[in-house]
Amino acid sequence: MLIRNPDEVEAKTMQMPGAEGVVMRLMVGREDGAPNFAMRIFDVEPGGQTPHHQHNYEHEIMVLAGTGEAYSGDTPHPVSAGDVLFVPANEVHQFRNTGDGTFRFMCMVPTSFDCGNDTCQPTPGS
Amino acid sequence: MLIRNPDEVEAKTMQMPGAEGVVMRLMVGREDGAPNFAMRIFDVEPGGQTPHHQHNYEHEIMVLAGTGEAYSGDTPHPVSAGDVLFVPANEVHQFRNTGDGTFRFMCMVPTSFDCGNDTCQPTPGS
With a cut of 0.90, is the ipTM above it? Predict the structure, then answer.
């Protein structure tokens, strides 16, 4: 059993094009032996945003603190602490902090994608 | 994109032998089209506990509220809101509420297990 607090985990700046004011903590991932899915925590500073992008794997998300908007394509949806989201594979999505404090959310990804012919690719950030 | 608050989701009493004072909300699961993993929220009332059990798939967990103990085998570890846990497959584990308020945690499972010969079993509670 591994027990880890976010305060103990290094926050890495999200370098992906389109990301502004975002850091990521990999809470549980491939290097911990996670076989199927990885847990990350993202902090978006006020006015910041994640990339407006898509990929062929899903997210399951829980907002942990703050208020923001979750974009499905070009449509914003207000979200706040406690809300849970499912973003299916291939849906264009983005998160923007619309509040005055940090917008923190937990975001799960599968550890592998593009599986076929007995091979998979490691998911970025897993 | 699905957006859902725990207050909108039915809380079902955990009937598994050994569970005492536990309800579960399935936040994102197989019926939502989740292909790889499912998100559940558990509320354990003061003095309550989840089963002391094991299974051949992993958990990734985040404590959302309250204080409790996470048992790895027979060894208790204190945990509180914000802590993240990885419970590998086959490890005996249990959660007990040691506080005065609700002990709430989010617990992820793979949607399938016992995969082999091109078949899998649906994970209970996914």
Answer: yes
